[in-house]
Amino acid sequence: MNIGLDMMGGDFAPREAVKGIQLYLNENPSASVLYATGDETQLQQLFQEFSIPSSSVKIIHAPQVIGMDEHPTKALKEKQQSSIAVGFHLLASGKIEAFISAGNTGAMMIGALYSIKAMDGVLRPTIATIIPKENGGSGLLLDVGLNADCKPEHLNQFAILGSLYAQHILGINNPRVSLINIGEEEGKGNLLAQAAYPLLKENTPINFTGNIEGRDILIDKTDVMVCEGFTGNIILKLAESLYEIAKQKNINNEYFERFNFENYGGTPVLGVAKPVIIGHGISQAKAFKNMIVLAQKMIETDLMAKMKASFKQD
Amino acid sequence: MNIGLDMMGGDFAPREAVKGIQLYLNENPSASVLYATGDETQLQQLFQEFSIPSSSVKIIHAPQVIGMDEHPTKALKEKQQSSIAVGFHLLASGKIEAFISAGNTGAMMIGALYSIKAMDGVLRPTIATIIPKENGGSGLLLDVGLNADCKPEHLNQFAILGSLYAQHILGINNPRVSLINIGEEEGKGNLLAQAAYPLLKENTPINFTGNIEGRDILIDKTDVMVCEGFTGNIILKLAESLYEIAKQKNINNEYFERFNFENYGGTPVLGVAKPVIIGHGISQAKAFKNMIVLAQKMIETDLMAKMKASFKQD
Questions:
Q1: What is the distance in angstroms between the Cα of A231 and the nearest Cα belonging to chain B?
Q2: pLDDT digits over A230-255, tens only?
């Protein structure tokens, strides 16, 4: 497998990205070849320092960097030699099978949507996150911020994408799919949720189990939780803050430890034609390693083909 | 003060409501006269059992009960002798100055909106909840479910109502008011948040401090957090579940203890002409006591007059 990694993205790049590669290669010595986009001189020195074998990592020189606060569209257009733009060129041309970055989130989104593009039939690609369940399991929440305003058919498509991701990546057999809502019965909710419910009910390829409420998000009542990106983003960031709060209050509990985003690495962009994974700006070694592992899994399971097949049937 | 209390509402009524009255009277022996609506015979026995002095509590006989699962509009119309309907008659006629119930939430809403009605100028009454902040303070979140779909001007009015509540009931001087959003800068968010931001910015009677994100909800970054009722309800129920989860995991931390809704009692309906407080169905003695304390505070501070004055200036 050929996996691309932006070495210059994120607050602790490139050093933590290199350390992430080291962690990954320790556990997966010959599974993949990594294509590291970034400044060649800097990377060569770091790879030497961390004894990264050149057989496992190819440096693809990219002299420019898109800053975390740059305007995404403008930066991506003007900085064709940036580590993100170069990564998307590699992905579009087929030289790599997945691309990962903890850099400018907007630029990664724009790259995924316009350089890679949505799968045929997918109206709106989406981003998802893992939500730790209090019984030890994991749920998938989507959309978590890419689509702040949605139509019912968008939610219905998120349900399909999320269901396939839960099945193939999280290993959940016949995942339960639910609509996040403010009441349990059909007919409850805002106009969007009211209109999405019947679509989800008739969406036979998924195992729709109805509405869930806010109190069900952290418990094992469902596997895939669907909502528009406004609510989803609020839930995601509220959940992430629980890790910080628990740490600050010296609550040493395994459950709240699981709200540390480093455990999951990054957010996959679902519904685009190729695997794209976006990391948190404050990603460190463990997060980078986990993003590479996730990319590997998305390639190994041929998740993209499965998603494409789902939308071709429509 | 004359405060009305539905004795038949909630899963543990009337016994826990009676115990709540006892707790309240122990702490506030002669502040109020309570008007207890419900079955006279049953209540007389319980008041005797708990030694509730008849000088402090008047029983208003209401032979009917609206069940927790009954259709609100239908039940309220057909059961004119129910403890909820009788309470609203007392409130509308001025015999009581506030009305409290832990019974059928829908019936309480309908009663508040149609029997008491919105204040002049208020487009949509709203419901609010206290959110415990990790530094020990308290924030106010609204709307938490009454208005699942909102227009920008509704959010702008919630900001005024919430600001006055925070000032007079929570005792926060010049409360910071923020818009819940998925980004910090103006222009971020869904269409509703984008359109609400400029209204809030120009709303000079409030101290608008801009957007907050999901990660700011539990920290002391703001006092009043405004959103539509869909997102607000998800946040509220997610927050409530933290108490249960912490308890189940034997995390004995003061902070998570504060997510126990019993500490707050009930949810005030803001923007209606008279104080109406709706309790959780599973309210017990402490929650009933706290709802009576809240009603007393709403009357003492003349919150309704302050709200009415705010909307008259518009």
A1: 6
A2: 999 999 999 999 999 999 999 989 99
Structure token pair of residue B88: 């609203």
Q: Which two tokens stand for residue A290?
A: 């986990």
* Residue A130 β-bridge partners: A140
Nearest residue of chain B to residue A235 (CA atoms): B214
CB B21 within 8 A of CB B54: no
Distance from CA of A236 to the nearest CA of B (A): 7
Tens digit of each residue's pLDDT (9 = 90 or more) over A83-133: 999 999 999 999 999 999 999 999 999 999 999 999 999 999 999 999 999
CA distance B207 to B212: 14
> Which residues have C-beta within 8 Å of that of residue B275, sequence separation ≥ 6?
B97, B98, B99, B268, B295, B298, B299, B303, B304
Asked whether the beta carbons of residue B217 and residue A241 sit closer than 8 angstroms, the reply is yes
- Facing residue for A148 by CB, picked from B182, B235, B239: B182
Q: Rounded to a whole number, what is the distance in Å from the CA of B245 to chain A's nearest CA? A: 7
Residue of chain A minimizing CA distance to B189: A148
Closest to A89 measured CA to CA, from A115, A107, A65: A115
* pLDDT tens for each residue of B8-29: 999 999 999 999 999 999 999 8
> Torsion-angle region of residue B121: left (phi > 0), alpha (psi -120 to 50) or beta?
left
CATH 3.40.718.10 domain locations along chain B: 1-119+271-302, 123-261
**What amino acid is encoded at A60 in this protein?**
I
Whether a cis peptide bond, with omega within 30° of 0, leads into B14 is: yes
Under DSSP, the state recorded for A64 is B
B230: chain A residues, CB-CB within 8 Å? 182, 189-190, 193, 231
Q: Say if CB A288 and CB A5 are below 8 A apart.
A: yes
Grouping H, G, I as helix, E, B as strand and the rest as coil, residue A116 is helix
- Do residues A145 and A162 make contact, with C-beta atoms less than 8 angstroms apart? no
CATH class of A1-122+271-303: alpha beta
- Say which amino acid occupies A65: V
Work out the angle at residue B162's Cα, subtended by the Cα atoms of residues B23 and B90, and round it to the nearest 5 degrees. 50
Q: What is the CATH number of domain B1-119+271-302?
A: 3.40.718.10
Size of interface A-B (CB pairs under 8 A): 120
Q: Which of B180, B188, B268, B186 is nearest to B231 (CA)?
A: B180
Interface ipTM: 0.93
User: Which residues of chain A are in CATH 3.40.718.10 domains?
Assistant: 1-122+271-303, 123-261
The CATH class that applies to domain B123-261 reads alpha beta
Q: Which residues 6+ apart lie within 8 Å of B224 measured at CB?
A: B139, B140, B142, B159, B162, B163, B165, B166, B175, B176, B177, B178
A134, B255: Cβ pair inside 8 Å?
Answer: no
The band of A313, judged by pLDDT with boundaries at 50, 70 and 90, is: low
